[in-house]
Structures are given as C-alpha cells and as structure tokens.
Amino acid sequence: MSYSTFNQNQVNPLLEPMFFGNSVNVARYDQQKHSIFEKLIEKQISFFWRPEEVDVSRDRVDFQALTDSEKHIFISNLKYQTLLDSVQGRSPNIALLPIVSIPELETWIETWSFFETIHSRSYTHILRNLFTDPSEVFEDIVINEEIQKRATDISRYYDDLIFYTQLWQTHGEGEWEVDGEKHLVSMRELKKKLFLCINSVNALEAVRFYVSFACTFAFAERDLMEGNSKIIRLIARDENLHLVSTQQILNLWQYGQDDPEMKEIAEELRDEALNIFMKAVEQEKQWAHYLFRHGSMIGLNEEMLCQYVEYIANMRMEAIGFDAPFKQRSNPLPWMNKYLVSDNVQVAPQEAEITSYLVGQIDSNVSASDLGDFEL
Amino acid sequence: MSTAYKVIVNGQQQLTVDSSQGTLLEAMEAAGLEPHYHCRNGFCGACRVQLVQGDITYINEPLAFVRPGDCLPCCCVAASDLEINQ
C-alpha cells in the first residue's frame, strides 16, 4: 500500500495502532490515543534552546592547555556524538514517519528529530570555536574505524526497516527480488523489523551517549571546557526525554496496550532485543578503552567509565522489563547526577555554577560621548 | 490530618516520612539511603523503586513509563504507610 500525505479515507485515530495502521490524515490533538506523546511534545518544546546562546569562547583557551591525551578524549567524543546526532536527526523521520498511524506520535517523532538537529548544530558551534578550520574533525568521522564500527550497528536496523517499508509501500506484501537478492515482505516481518529498530534506538539513547557525557562533565568538574559542558547538559536533558519516548513505545507494546501482534513479537524477539542492548553496552566499553588508550584524565579512567556504563545499563534495562545483568548497583560517578538534574539546567545565569554564562548578551549601555561624532 | 507515614525500605530499614515536607525521594535521601536519580522531575525514570505495599500520590504526573508495581519517588509523596524495595 502506497503512502499518501493525506489519507482521504475516514479513519478513527483512536482505534489505530501506533504503527502500520492507516496513515495519519488530520493532524489533530484534541483527542489522543496515547496522550503521553502529546505531553512529551509539550515538555520538549519547553526545553527549546539555541547553541548560539551558550558562550563557548573560553573553551578555546582551556582546550589549548589540555594534554594530548585529553584533547584526544575531548575531540573523539565530539566526533562520536556528531555521528549519533547525524543519524538521529534524520532516521526517525525517514524510518518511522511513513508507517506511523496516530497524529500525536507523528508529531512527537518530528519534534524529536528536530531537536537532534539542534544538537548537531551545536557540535559545529563548539568545533568552530576550537579550530579555525574544523573540516579535519568532521572528515575523520567517516574514516575513523572506531566510529565506523559503531555507525554500522546504529544505522543497520534503521536501514533495514526503511528498505522493507519502501518495498512494501511500492509492491505490497510478497517475495521481491532486488539486485539479485530475494526479500520476503510480510506485515509480520515488517513489524519485527520495527521492533528491533526501536530497541536499537532505545539502546542508543539509553547508553551510547553516556560515555561522552561522563567525559564532558569530568572536564567541567575541573572547571574546564565549561561552555561545552553547558551545551552537553542541555543535550543530556533532551536525550533523557527521547529515551522516555522509546521506553514508552516498548512498554506499550509489551503490556498489550497497543497492537496485540506487537505484544507477541516483543515476546518472540525478547532475546534478540536483549542482545542489541548488550552489544551496545559492549561497544561503549570498547569506546572507553579507545578514549583512554593514550592515557586517562584526572578524575576518570577506563575502569570507572565501564562501571558507569554498567550502572546505567542496569537502570535502562530494568525500565524495559529486563533483569539487571550487571553487578554494578551503586553509582561510580556520583558527581554526574548534578549535571543530569533537569532543574539545574535552567537557572538564573548568575547562580549557575558555570562561569561562562553570557547568553546572547549585548552591551546596552550607550553614553552620550559614543554619539559625539554623529552628524545629521 | 497527619501526613506522617512509615516507610519500610528493602524489608528492613524503616523511616518516617512527612508528605508535606517534600517528595519521597527527598525523604529517602534525608535518611541516607542514596537512591538513584537523574532528572528529579519524573521524566527519566532513574529513581524507579518497587512499590510492594501502600499508596502514593504523584505531585507531578510522571512522563516516564511506570511499570505495574513500580513508582517514581522523585515526583510522588506517600499517601499511606509504604513498603518499597530499592
């Protein structure tokens, strides 16, 4: 069935499943099947921010004073986050919008992706300040092997779902041959791919960002790179919200509060979903190893970072109904929490712990002498 | 009406919480329990604990999915004596 930008059939969105029902026609929010998504939209919009609001000029001086191993940690993390947000800025739109069936979720997906593009723009803002020409950093993202390994795993579930959705929307269900390869397209198969895709996105939002967050906040603990840390705080707050949405989707399926077939699939593919999560955790630990291969930084080392990944993974996995697989039950980096508390993000600038607090500041003091040589 | 309730944590530790004096999370912290938290605002779900027995009231509606039998102490207060597992 082909996609229509305005489905002319009369459909009742209150009876539609989240995905693979009738496509959305009227964008109405007066009635909602899953009102949580409307609440998430409201919350997300209330978090609106612009990278340019945050002054990062002091970071350049701090950066010059970092050791080579610390520079490696800082820049590698920025590269990795740039990759993550490049994917997240487009993929939910391309993969999920063609198959979504309720308006509030459709708009949530668009809002979510839009915020990821703000994150992407903020990395350019940070890098442009640190380097006269940041091209080298950006170009390395597609060459760097460590980043590539992660990119493969992050994008494959999306790509798979997108490809099968395209086949389904152009040819319908059946077995189709593309470039000599046969593909079985059935609704069950599509839903399975969707389930795995959401699990992969959930793992991404749940653990993949946190290694770099930890490094950024470890710099901030030493009063270094504070502009950057202020931006990452805002990003962390947004990512927390994005994670809530994927957790909501997974739980709604599991508890049979949406498509009953998705409940079956959630049970059928439980082990595979678990593997996706465990693999993300493993990759993050390897990333920590890569970061610290030239030496660690004050206040943080590979072991602590791996413990933090396990700690956070336990929490995230319990949230979607898995047992906590790791022993690490206490927080090995307790100072992280003060950067993740949402209330601490928006405070009066003069009260913030961060010293570089000029937010879109202009000088509005004009003395009469400034206009001394002004003639009419 | 009294707003003080007894809370049993992990089947052993017992504390008295006053619902008018802040959230359950704050009461747990005051008792030195070191609960998990991130956002303290009901949307990340990091503080999730198991609610074995008793009633709670959310002062802010949580955005995180609260699985049956769980509660988010960062945005709720006790509405009866409670038993929770951390």
TrEMBL record, chain A:
Q: Which Gene3D superfamilies match?
A: Ribonucleotide Reductase, subunit A
Provide the cofactor list for this protein. Fe cation
Species for this entry: Pseudidiomarina maritima
Q: Which InterPro entries match?
A: Ferritin-like_SF, RNR-like, RNR_small, RNR_small_fam
Q: Does the keyword Endoplasmic reticulum apply?
A: no
Key words of the record: Deoxyribonucleotide synthesis, Iron, Metal-binding, Oxidoreductase
Superkingdom assignment? Bacteria
Q: Does the keyword Iron apply?
A: yes
Q: What is this protein called?
A: ribonucleoside-diphosphate reductase
SUPFAM superfamilies in the record: Ferritin-like (SSF47240)
The GO annotation for biological process reads: deoxyribonucleotide biosynthetic process
Q: What are the EC numbers?
A: 1.17.4.1
A molecular function annotated in GO for this UniProt entry is: metal ion binding
Q: Which major enzyme category is it?
A: oxidoreductase
Q: Which family does it belong to?
A: Belongs to the ribonucleoside diphosphate reductase small chain family.
TrEMBL record, chain B:
Q: Does the keyword GTP-binding apply?
A: no
Which GO-annotated molecular functions does the record name?
2 iron, 2 sulfur cluster binding
- Supply the alphabetized keyword list: Ubiquinone
The source organism is Pseudidiomarina maritima
All copies of the 2Fe-2S ferredoxin-type domain together span 3-86
Q: Which Pfam families match?
A: Fer2 (PF00111)
Domain of life assignment: Bacteria
Any coiled-coil regions, as ranges: none
Q: Does the keyword Transit peptide apply?
A: no
| Protein name listed in UniProt | Ferredoxin
Q: Which Gene3D superfamilies match?
A: 3.10.20.30
